[in-house]
Each structure stands twice: as C-alpha cells, then as structure tokens.
Specification:
The strands form 2 sheets. A 5-stranded antiparallel beta sheet has the order 5-2-4-3-7. A two-stranded antiparallel ribbon has the order 1-6. By secondary structure, it is α+β, with helices and mostly antiparallel strands. Helix content is about 30%, strand content about 15%. The chain is built from 6 helices and 7 strands.
C-alpha cells in the first residue's frame, strides 16, 4: 500500500477553515490518504479511482466537477498572484494544482457559475484575464498523488488536498482574490480598487476572517 494511502484524518485540519498553510507555513504539495479519498469521491466510482491510484500512483485522473468541488483555471502568472493574495491577505486557500501552464484553484461547488456573474456585475471582468470556470457537467485532469518526475510533469500539486473535507473558497472570496491580483498585475498608470462606485450600489465582501 502506498504511503499516502496509509495516512488518516488524525491531526488533519478541519474542513470548516483553511489548512495551516494559510497561516504562513509552506504549502502542502503531497496528497494524503484522506485527501485522495476526497478527490476520488467526486467520481462515479470512488473505489475504482482509489484502486487505480493504489496501483499507479503517478498517473493523473479525470474527475467531474460540480458536486464535490468546482475548479477555476487561471493563467499561471495571474493564478500565482491570486494564490499569494489568498494566503497572505485573505482567508487562505484549498487545494491548488498547476496544469499545462495554468493554475487550477479548487473552489466550493457553485463557484463556476457564480464567479463570472460577479465579475460581470462588478464591471471588473475587463481587468481579469480569461478564467476557465469548470462546474457541473465539466471534468478536469487532477495531478496524481505521487510525482514521478517534477521537472517533466505537466500536472502537479502546489497545495495538495490533505483532509477528507478541505476548506474551499467560494465565489465571493475568489472575486476578492481576482481583483487583488488584477491590481498587482495592472500597469502603473491603471488604478484598480476593490471597492466599486457607491452610486451603483455595489456589495462589499469581507473575506478577511477565516471561516
């Protein structure tokens, strides 16, 4: 049995708050047994997914979105800024992977539908590069539990799932991270604010506290 599959939930962070990495520790880049079970639970046959990983732990898997998690795919550089803002200034993050030059941010179910609507409503969409939001009816390739060769891997974990019920950011948290990241990457002469004009009745989301 692979080492990652022998892990248990003992001493793992609870699912109602971000993992300890959001408090300044190094990101977790190793899938644990509970984390693999959480990922596998998204599939139609979780036991088959786990059995495949047990025999071939360095192979990625294609899993459906919408029930256990959604995935927001961002360009690598912009996604890194989002991740930095979530970890350094926000409530933290859930699992995050890198795949073929993009950053895959695992989010709460429903985020794939809600986030684009929030960006359009707040009129910030033009400052944010194209995001691919995967929800119900979509599937994504997730990295394997074990890396065979990091230098050549096209899919790998940056923050790996380590709990059976990991905390996942919702659409409001992701909106906040998008605007902060857009401000980080904007040209010097472009001023972006996380607050919308008051005369348009904008909502202000407070995501500074842990959940």
């Amino acid at each position: 049995m692979s080492g990652w599959l022998r892990d248990t939930d003992k001493d793992r962070p609870s699912g109602d708050r971000p993992p300890a990495e959001s408090e300044g520790a190094d990101p977790v880049a190793r899938v644990t047994g509970p984390g693999a079970e959480w990922l596998a639970s998204a599939g139609a046959s979780p036991r088959s997914v786990l059995a495949r990983w047990e025999s071939r732990p360095t192979e990625p898997a294609v899993l459906p979105c919408g029930s256990v998690f959604d995935v927001v795919s961002a360009p690598a550089v912009f996604g890194r800024h989002m991740l930095d803002r979530l970890r350094e200034e926000g409530p933290g993050c859930g699992p995050v992977a890198a795949h073929r030059g993009r950053m895959l941010i695992f989010a709460a179910p429903g985020s794939a539908d809600r986030l684009p609507a929030l960006l359009r409503w707040e009129e910030w969409g033009g400052a944010v590069p194209p995001l691919l939001c995967h929800g119900t009816g979509d599937a994504v390739t997730v990295p394997p539990p074990e890396e065979a060769d990091r230098s050549g891997a096209c899919s790998r974990w940056l923050v790996a799932p380590e709990a059976r019920h990991p905390w996942l950011p919702g659409p409001e948290v992701l909106l906040w991270a998008c605007v902060r990241a857009a401000r980080d990457t904007a040209a010097p002469e472009v001023a972006l604010s996380i607050f919308h004009r008051a005369d348009q009745g904008a909502k202000v989301y407070d995501v500074s506290r842990r959940r």
